[in-house]
Amino acid sequence: MDVLSGPVAGVFRAPDVDYHAFAPELVLVAVLVAVLVVDLVLEGRGRRLVGGLAGIGLLAAMVPVLTLAVDGANRSMVGGAYVVDDFALVFKGLFLIAGYVTMLLSSDYLADDDYYEGEYYFLLLSSVLGMMVMASSRDLISIFVALELLSIPAYMLAGWRKRDLKGNEATLKYYLLGVFATGVMLYGMSLIFGITGETVLTEIGSKLQGPGASLPLVSLGIVFVIVGFAFKISAVPFHSWAPDTYEGAPTPITAFLSVASKAGGFVALMQLVFIGFLGRDDVWQPMFWVLAALTMTVGNLIALRQTNIVRMLAYSSVAQAGYMLLPFAVAGDLAKGPGAAMGPMTTYLLIYAAMNLGAFALVLAVARKTRSGEIASYGGLFEYAPGLTVLMSIFVFALAGIPPLGGWYGKLVVFKTLLDANTPWAIVLGVIAAVNSVIALYYYASVAREMWMRPVPDGDTTPVRVPAGLTAALSLCAVATVVIGVYPQVVARFGDLAVFSLLP
Amino acid sequence: MVAQNIAFGVLAAATSLAAIRVVTTRNVVHAALYLVVVLASVGALYILLTAEFVAAVQILVYVGAIVVLLLFGVMLTKATLGEDDQLDNDQRWLGAVIALFLLGTLSFVLVDAFGDDKLPSLEGVSRATLEAQRGSGAVGDAIFSTFLVPFEVVSVLLLAALVGAIVLARRD
């Protein structure tokens, strides 16, 4: 039989495509192709131009996100596999802004770097595109493809300094552990598909509430899928790649990985857990409890001993992921239903993005002068760079959760979720989290002490020159951190929006 | 069904034995060639399940591309051709214990979930129905309708992987 005139030919109906719903992704695709072509034509001479184009492209993709938000309708396409709702839009906005800040950080970093390649921007945009797709993906295949699109460019960006041994180590560890985690996750997805016969999360969700959902096979599938994403969000014990990768990767990429890539993992987890696996909180709730407790504790304890600022921030971001996991660990016990756990997680992620990007931007600014990543090199920073010192203090104390800087509100909503659940396990977890916040304060404050009270290590007090892009990124993050801290309703509103309708 | 059962037994045995040899052999090239046996047998298992499209993809992608890439990798790097004692690993017993544990767990949950299920009998089902349900045409239709978004995203993914690989591999 001829392939073209097979029995199914003629039955095929092209799906309706809602171009407005796809507009942010389409704009981004157009820009990333343009970036590739422009760089090809200019043969690497247009560093500023290509970077500027990529930055403008990210902002341009923000326009359809805003029009979709104003429009407000939930758009569900291809049988519920791809959904544009407020949840997706809040995170698309976050990914675009995080990508834009990374772009600001990169342009000056790359300007005087031997490792410049125009493809850097192309890969960064591809990774952002993967995150955008992830925010709308509501079926297993789309989630997997989006995960690959956000990860594969990131693997290569982590090893961008290819003649640098640490860079090679960074990318190799990230890549090998990453594909291993993806393999485990895919196996889990195949088990879940095998038992439900569905890839769309809503269908999986309703199947897993029916009979046969309590099979050990389903539990194993859920565990495998969560393990795959636990790697992405660098939860302990799947965090071992994070410090080495963060240290060896170019610092703008480190900032990007620690914020955007982590948020991408959380977005996928929220969609999977709160739609697909909703009926099986007996499996994921204890698992997240253990993950959250371990991630906070191990991350903070190891961060205490770090002497390198990037490694310290790496372990601190591991610990922060632990706080973000807290609502998962109690979601099933909430009176308002598991969906009530999504708001606090989103709120925390948004605040974390502002303060962590800011901290890495500052590390970049200081490293321009000191050429060192040691915490000791921050000694006496106040004497020659008072502005940067104040900013860094804002970021580290925000990360520690001191009011009135952004971080406290994130911690507040997360702790409030634990109290709302009001089970013995939630209270124990709350105590662990509280102890961890105190531990964290010690190492965050030690950076501040170094900057304000210690002498300059080499006596060199020439001021730090901060280029315009970096200044813009720093101001953006600092303003966001302070405004959120003083007026937290700004993010609380987004946190409330970012809840998708759960299954009945 | 006897023929299918015998074929399954032979293929399963070939897959398992070759898979064990992949990790126990001390010769990288032999390991890659044993891998060909494993992957090709899995492709044959797909044919037994009347999934001929998946079988073709399995042979094209895994045997055709991945193993060849692996052999190129062996050739282009400084890996020893022939016996190499360094291929062994001190943690092999730990690895073996974990592998056996995983085997036990997976066998248990799979048998527990699907142990009593029977493949639907194909007797009386017309060839046309069968092709409409699981032929390559059905796969193609699904790719361009249900899975349109992931399909389009994969094109960007491949472009990014290609560009990134060239950048990392290029000597500058």
Just name the CATH architecture of one domain in chain B.
Answer: Up-down Bundle
Can you count the helices of chain B?
7
The 3D shape of chain A can be described as globular
- Approximate helicity band of chain B: over 70%
- What are the segments of chain A in which pLDDT stays under 50 over at least 5 consecutive residues? 1-9
How confident is the prediction overall: mean pLDDT of chain A?
Answer: 88
Q: Specify the structural class of chain B.
A: mainly alpha
CATH topology of one domain in chain B: Four Helix Bundle (Hemerythrin (Met), subunit A)
Beta strand % of chain A: under 5%
- Radius of gyration of chain A equals 22 Å
The percentage of residues in β strands of chain B lies in under 5%
How is the quaternary structure best described? Answer: heterodimer
Please tally the β strands of chain B and state the result.
Answer: 0
Walk me through this protein's architecture:
The complex is a heterodimer of chains A (504) and B (172). Chain A has 504 residues and is an all-alpha fold. Chain A has a domain at 280-504. Helices cover 73% and strands 1% of the residues of chain A. In chain A, helix 12 (309-330) packs parallel to helix 16. Chain B is mostly helical and 172 residues long. Chain B has a domain at 1-81: Four Helix Bundle (Hemerythrin (Met), subunit A), CATH 1.20.120.1200. In chain B, 76% of the residues lie in helices and 0% in strands. Chain B has helices spanning 2-24, 28-48, 52-76, 92-114, 127-134, 136-144, 148-169. The longest helix of chain B is centred in the middle third of the chain and has 25 residues, at 52-76. Chain B starts with a helix and ends with a helix. Chain A binds chain B through residues 1, 3, 6-9, 11-15, 17, 29, 32, 36, 77-79, 81-82, 117, 119, 122-123, 126-127, 129-130, 133, 137, 141-142, 144-146, 148-149, 152-153, 155-156, 159, 162, 191, 194-195, 215-217, 220, and chain B through 105-106, 108-110, 112-114, 128-129, 131-132, 135-138, 141, 144-150, 153-154, 156-157, 159-161, 163-165, 167-168.
